[in-house]
Automatic annotation (TrEMBL):
Residues 13-142, 156-293 form the EamA domain. InterPro entries: AA-Vitamin_Transporters, EamA_dom, EmrE-like. Belongs to the EamA transporter family. It is a multi-pass membrane protein. Its main location: membrane. Keywords: Membrane, Transmembrane, Transmembrane helix. It comes from the Bacteria. It is found in: Membrane. This is EamA domain-containing protein. Pfam families: EamA. The chain crosses the membrane at residues 12-30, 36-60, 72-91, 97-119, 128-147, 153-173, 185-203, 218-238, 250-269, 275-292. GO terms for cellular component: membrane. The keyword Membrane applies.
Length: 297
């Protein structure tokens, strides 16, 4: 928790719950967007719409940045937003939204590992147990077949694992590199810096414009993804970065305890089915996160 200000527990946990509701709903929005658009188009629309909304906030601040801040903000945008937006969309072309939401719970485990390997963090015995349980649950979850047997390895889960690794890296970057920048600056500028990449792909290399002109349901799908971009990316990242600066990377990633609950609820409401192997994997992952995130005395 920041030494510069006294933080109300109500504020901290309120932000945590709000983030869980927003991000837990992201996976069903991706699923609805994929009914019309390709995975690449979904990722690009998500980033571009978020950056478009945040541009007015970022422009007045650009001149105040030095070269080092420019570099780290671009890296943060690529690792914390651009990469995961595309990776999650590609994963959900073959994964149920609820299962993707559960795999997203690996974020605090990767936050811990990255902190230990690259940011001088320390690994305790319970952390090691949490990591082992988390990855064991992941293996069970991604090989659980439609009949509940461990036999059908779903390689698309690897995209989610890579996305959560990106989140873990970004958590530590925010905490260690942006001590003098506000959460709003971090979010808005990092997204605006990567927006040209998303826009270039969307309007120059994809079939987005043609689909908007001719495909029935395209406007509704666009609305879903824009909600995902504006609320689930732009607004939520401001809240997320604020929470990181108020607390710690591992505490902030505690939001991933709650995200699977919201994601699974949406998935079940939309007709998705969980089999026995899925439940085993879910329990192991949540236990792993609980051990890795256990508060130190």
């Amino acid at each position: 928790m920041s030494e510069k200000e006294s933080v109300s527990p109500i504020l901290v946990y309120g932000l945590l719950i709000l983030l869980a509701l927003i991000w837990g709903s992201s996976f069903i929005l991706i699923k609805k967007g994929l009914l019309i658009f390709s995975a690449g188009e979904v990722g690009a629309i998500r980033i571009f719409s978020a950056a478009l909304v945040l541009t007015p906030l970022s422009l007045p601040k650009l001149k105040s940045l030095n070269k080092r801040q420019w570099k780290w903000l671009f890296i943060s945008g690529m690792v914390g937003s651009f990469g995961p937006a595309f990776l999650f969309a590609y994963a959900q072309t073959q994964l149920e939204s609820g299962i993707t939401g559960v795999l997203n719970a690996l974020t605090p485990i990767f936050a811990l590992l990255v902190g230990v390997l690259f940011f001088k963090g320390k690994l305790k015995l319970r952390d090691s147990l949490g990591i082992a349980l988390g990855f064991g649950g992941t293996i069970v979850l991604i090989v659980a077949g439609s009949g509940g047997e461990l036999g059908n390895f779903n390689f698309y889960a690897i995209f989610v694992i890579l996305a959560t690794l990106c989140y873990g890296i970004n958590l530590n970057i925010i905490k260690t590199q942006f001590s003098i920048l506000t959460p709003r600056m971090i979010t808005s500028i990092s997204l605006v810096l990567i927006a040209p990449l998303a826009g270039g792909y969307l309007f120059g290399s994809s079939d987005f414009v043609n689909k908007m002109q001719h495909d029935e349901g395209a406007w509704l799908a666009l609305l879903y993804i824009c909600i995902l971009g504006v609320i689930g990316t732009a607004f939520a990242l401001i809240l997320f970065n604020r929470l990181v600066k108020l607390t710690s990377p591992v505490f902030t990633s505690f939001v991933t305890y709650l995200i699977p609950i919201v994601a699974i609820a949406w998935g079940l409401f939309d007709g998705e089915i969980l089999v026995f192997g899925h439940y085993i994997g879910i329990v192991l992952i949540i236990l792993g996160v609980a051990f890795a995130n256990r508060p130190k005395k």
